[in-house]
Structures are given as C-alpha cells and as structure tokens.
Amino acid sequence: MIEAEWWEYDSVEEMADAVSGDVGFIIESAIDARDASLLALPGGKTPLPIFDKMIKAKLPWKKVTIVPTDERLVAVDHELSNARMLAQRFMRAGARVIPIGGENDDVDAAGNIADARLQDLPWPPDLVWLGMGADGHTASIFAGPDMQKALDAPNARRAVGVRPDPLPAEAPVPRVTLTRAALLSARTLIITIQGAEKKELLEQAIADGQSSRLPIGRLLAEAEQPIDIHWAP
Ligand SMILES: O=C1O[C@H](COP(=O)(O)O)[C@@H](O)[C@H](O)[C@H]1O
C-alpha cells in the first residue's frame, strides 16, 4: 500500500516556497543529527524554480553533498547534464555536487562507475527527491528493456546504466540512474510534478501499484516510507 500525501498549490511559485522550506528543514535536521547532509536531487525542468529559491536560503550549504538521482551520459559541461545544472546552482551556494556520469558509450561501464562513486558516500541520503516525465519515467528508470535492471538490482547496488528504448525526445541519450533500492533507501522521499496530465498519470500509477506499467508506479509500490507529492498546475 503506497502511503502518499498530496500537496496541491495554485502556482509554481507557491510550490517553490513550500518545497524549499521543507528541504531546508530536512537539511538542518540532518546537520543537527549527523553534522552533514546528503541529498539526491532530480534533473529536468520542473525543479528549477524550487532550486533557485533554495539557494537563496541561508543554509549550511558547506555541509551539504548533492548527487543527481540520474544522469544523461554526456560531457559534464553539456547542456543536458543534470550534474552541470545542479553544480551551476548549488556549488555557488557552497554545496558539494558529485557527478555520477559523463560521456560514455558503454552503458554498463558507466553504471559501474556511477555505482562506485556512490559507494564512497555516507548512505542513506537524507532526501531522495524525484520528478516524473510525461511517460511515467522517474530518475532514469524508463519503461522498456532496461526497466527491470534498475528495479531489480540487488539492495547493495546504488546505480546502473540504462539505454532507454525509445530514447526520450527531450534528451535522447543513454543514462545512469540510481536503482530502486538506492532511491527507496532514502530517509525522506518527495516528488514534485507539474500539470494536469502528470497528476492524472501519477494518481493512476499509484492506484495500479505493483501492476503499473509505469516505472514510477513500480518504484513507489515498494516504498516503505510515506511520500509527499507536491503538485502545481
Ligand atoms: O530526464 C529526466 O526527466 C525527469 C522529469 O523531468 P521534468 O523536466 O519533466 O520534470 C527528471 O526527474 C529526471 O531527473 C531527468 O533526468
């Protein structure tokens, strides 16, 4: 049974205020408890206004380490790189951003490199923050031939390489992604989405749970922690 609480806002601005406040609280609580905070943050476009609001908050950014939930296998300075997008924002604030990908035609090798980098970090993340594509993918777990590889990876495995088929139009490149086990190991799990179509898709995926054909439904079906879902039109 997926325990999801929906938070609905009138605007993206309102969602950004609320989510940036929640994440600030997660960071401060982690630093109080462990003197450090590890966050896994999504790529894509939806979280950008929230990230921009977060970096204006006076938080102990120097104690924060950030990894992307997934990465497109492009050069680290490529416009499609999630690490580049995160670094441009959070490194300026003082946080450490760890890239987990780079240009690499060998998807399996890329997955091994990403996994090795993540194995070096103090686990679990205080926060895994997920987005969702209009096709129901989350992080870089896409429906298709490599979906089970990411969903069924052993618990100790933190990342795998995937080649979405078909490649998504907005970023048509192979990827690395945190595995289901790594994503669900988070102390806190949140999702941010925008638009009526995604809301309907996510509601259905949650209702279908384990029998969902969508990666987001299959992922959340195994979640043991409550999930906050933030939505703006
Ligand atoms: O490719 C990706 O897409 C999803 C969704 O992005 P959005 O722009 O539709 O919100 C994102 O969560 C993921 O991290 C990213 O690599």
TrEMBL record:
First and last residue of the signal peptide: none
Catalytic activity: 6-phospho-D-glucono-1,5-lactone + H2O = 6-phospho-D-gluconate + H(+)
Pathway, per record: Carbohydrate degradation; pentose phosphate pathway; D-ribulose 5-phosphate from D-glucose 6-phosphate (oxidative stage): step 2/3
Top-level taxon of origin: Bacteria
EC number: 3.1.1.31
Transmembrane region(s): none
Coiled-coil region(s): none
InterPro entries membership: 6-phosphogluconolactonase_DevB, 6PGL, Glc/Gal-6P_isomerase, NagB/RpiA_transferase-like
Family: Belongs to the glucosamine/galactosamine-6-phosphate isomerase family. 6-phosphogluconolactonase subfamily.
PANTHER family from the UniProt entry: 6-PHOSPHOGLUCONOLACTONASE
Protein name (Swiss-Prot/TrEMBL): 6-phosphogluconolactonase
Chain's gene name: pgl
